[in-house]
Amino acid sequence: DHTGEIIAQGLQEALLSWNLPEARQVCITTDNGSNIVKAVSLNKWKRLQCFGHRLHLAIERSMKDSRIDRAVGVCKKVVSSFSFSWKKRRDLGTAQQELNSPAHQLISESPTRWGSRAKMIERVLEQERAISQVLAADKKTRHLVLTWNILAIQDDDTALTQSIKVSILDYLREKFDDTATNDLLDMAGLVDPRFKTRYIAEDNLEETKCRAISEMEAITV
């Protein structure tokens, strides 16, 4: 049973099994599942949203544009036509040899695999000539060749790219606009030798250093 109460108890037991004092527990990173959010709340722990999950949601949100939907729809139809036909997959291999294209299989998008949409589109574009050759030879899929122009570079692509970036940034700013979270991330970055002060705002740098020194001095082994 994955209720918030059960998960909260399981998390407490995990700390005990690892001999980790709850007082030393800084935060817990989770996705946005209601049960895990409730569990963290019941334990009165600081929760840090999974940035990867939020980034995925931000990208999905930014993709809700009719131009993007049409282009992605074309890719899905093309990939689907090969997924359900061993003959087309065979013919694709033949076309790849004739055109000296990489002998790569097409990739299907999966809602649970982050980044799979980008990989699908990248592979379709890589195999465009071989795919077109196979589709054009079949009356049932010949019409898909005519839709390639949707994927062609358009004059307004720059504006579209900008709107996507703005949408992603606005979403992330909204979800991570929390002083306590930002302070925690600043501290984590400071003590990480890979990042140190690289991502700390200039206005917060001295305060973050002082907090780090203060917390280290307060630690009792």
UniProtKB/TrEMBL annotation:
Stored SUPFAM superfamilies: Ribonuclease H-like (SSF53098)
InterPro entries listed in its UniProt record: RNaseH-like_sf, ZnF_BED_domain_contain
UniProt name for this protein: Zinc finger BED domain containing protein 4
Species annotation: Dissostichus eleginoides (Patagonian toothfish)
